[in-house]
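step 3/5: co-fold with PBG
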Amino acid sequence: MNAMFPQMRPRRLRYTPTLRRMVRETVLTPNDFIYPLFVIHGQNLKRPIGSMPGQAQLSVDRLPYEAEELIKLGIPAVILFGLPATKDASGSENYAEDGIIQQAIRTLKAAVPELVVITDVCMCEYTDHGHCGILDEHGYVVNDKTLPILQQVVASHAQAGVDIVAPSGMMDGAVGALRAELDRIGAEHVPVMAYAAKFASGFYGPFREAADSPPAFGDRKQYQMDPANGREALREVALDVQEGADMVMVKPALPYLDILAQVKQRFGLPTAAYHVSGEYAMIKAAAQNGWIDERTVAMESLTAIKRAGADMILTYYAKDAARWLQVEEH
Ligand code: PBG
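step 4/5: write tokens
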């Protein structure tokens, strides 16, 4: 038996909802959230994403309404993913002046300037092969041929007025290459949020339908990390910090909370966690079956991610969570 019993009774502080609120260590706010948006060509389109109930692809003209809703809910930022009109070997719409993301940035910044616009900088949505870089004849992603393309991409995003760029392809040296390019073109004020520890995860499945970005062959294990590797994740983060990352991200979130906690403690940088599409879809599917309570499980997940060390959470639950936070639950 506990030697402190009966003097110590932790249950005393759980007696009423108000007491529990007073001793709560981790409190979510809408400020914690970054909302992912999928942008498509066309007019007045809101195309539901089957694998992610409640999420939709939006045409550029719909973005201002979405942005106003987010600001009203207190959500400070979005991260944009684009679906191009055409795909090719080098993903050329990715850095086109009038590409889908460049249009989206300009439209959002003109309509709701205070909303922070983050762009995912990667090639997989734009290439006809669906990989995150330039391929050689063996289907291998060639790191150093990919970097100059990513530099063109960030330059085009910066020219359109992006607030933060987030390289997500796990190419070696990408953070340094993007930092150098941003500085060279006079965008030294634009921070880099590095997808620093990004794992080759099955939890991205629903996203690949949403962003139409599955690899045409093979997988991403030659660039994304092995889920078994924690020490390597810390080395990856250290490299991105050395290369000039302003913020770092761990992705996915819930299965990698050990890594998130260590990254926060060790580096102390603003740390983001991506609560990814599969994490969202699992909650949705189980809730739709009546097996779990959606609000309870979603808020528990987001709270756990923050408790582990996340300063920012990229989540498809951003809007729901902000609404739930307006009505206190005990
Ligand atoms: C692009 C990218 C992916 C995600 C974010 N950026 C897909 C991938 O790496 O295959 C996944 C996000 C999610 O699942 O919600 N590289």
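step 5/5: annotate
The chain has eleven helices and ten strands.
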